[in-house]
Design brief:
binds fe (iii) ion, single chain, four-stranded mixed beta sheet, alpha/beta, 9% strand, binds 7,8-dihydrobiopterin
């Protein structure tokens, strides 16, 4: 992955410390920046009703992440820290893998502090504050999810081989970024990449095109993914209390199996897959 965090942030290389953490400079957002946030927020909030898990809305409300403007990390962190020990830190953009893992392991979620320009309203290549804070941070209020992401950071620090790191990245991609979850009300979104994208919010739950497969860590670690289009396969968690165990023993057992098996294309289906069907409720969510 090319790391060029300087362009969008407006910062020069010498202004960025080794841990990549910078000040959010909350006072520097323009009225137009807050307006961009408000428009993105309102569009997603309405669309996510009946499509995202309840824990997401509970997190938004608990943290005071709202339509009125970009959140101030200092205020958000008081609540988040008390709830699950997590805090959000501002970074200029994508950070190197080791830096990313170190922050997660220490319960610091690195979030881009800049917001997209109006002409990029529907598509950005790098995560901005809307994707990172609206998409990821609400669920960090949930204990099981918060523990899972911290364990992922710790796991990342135990591996160095690029092929192993690719397998780990797939675990994160197909859960934290693009995961679906089984709930009492039906299939719901929990991945931030879906939650921050209006097109994929509808597609992930309603299109007949993508595969939907019960989450299995070995299967997921074998599976390539698309970064420039909607996913061809979604993996479905059975619930927040059933997220994979990423502690050294269980994770290495899954990793060892994945190393021995062929990698799979993003749209592959294999006989072992447990397919998850859409029901009518998911195809036509209540208005
Ligand atoms: N940096 N800021 C930021 N956000 C990410 O999601 C991120 C990153 N660096 C690396 C990375 N993600 C992925 O490659 C991880 O799965 C390792
Ligand atoms: Fe993300």
């Amino acid at each position: 992955m090319t790391i060029d965090p300087f362009i969008r942030s407006g910062l020069q290389a010498h202004q960025i410390p080794a841990d990549y953490v910078v000040d959010q400079r909350f006072q520097d957002y323009s009225a137009a920046d807050h307006e961009t946030w408000s428009r993105l927020y309102r569009r997603q909030f309405d669309l996510l009703h009946g499509r995202i898990c309840d824990e997401f809305f509970a997190g938004l409300a608990g943290l005071g992440i709202a339509a009125d403007g970009i959140p101030d990390f200092r205020e958000m962190n008081r609540v988040l820290k008390a709830a699950t020990g997590w805090e959000v830190v501002a970074v200029p953009g994508l950070v190197p893998d080791r830096v990313f893992f170190t922050h997660l392991a220490q319960r610091r979620f690195p979030a881009g502090f800049w917001i997209r320009r109006p002409d990029e309203f529907d598509y950005i290549e790098e995560p901005d504050i809307f994707h990172d804070v609206f998409g990821h941070v609400p669920l960090l209020m949930n204990r099981a999810y918060a523990d899972f992401v911290a364990a992922y950071g710790e796991a990342g620090l135990r591996y160095a081989d690029p092929a192993d790191l690719s397998r780990l990245a797939r675990l994160y991609w197909y859960s934290v970024e693009f995961g679906l979850i089984e709930t009492k009300a039906g299939l719901r979104i929990f991945g931030a990449g879906i939650a921050s994208s209006p097109g994929e919010t509808v597609y992930a739950l309603e299109s007949e095109k993508p595969g939907r497969i019960a989450f299995d860590p070995v299967r997921v670690m074998r599976t390539h993914y698309k970064i420039d289009d909607f996913q061809q396969t979604y993996f479905v968690m059975p619930g927040f209390d059933f997220m994979p165990d990423l502690t050294p023993g269980p994770l290495e057992a899954a990793m060892a199996k994945a190393r021995m098996l062929p990698e799979l294309a993003a749209d592959a289906l294999i006989t072992e897959d447990r397919r998850v069907a859409l029901d009518d409720r998911q195809r036509r969510p209540a208005a």
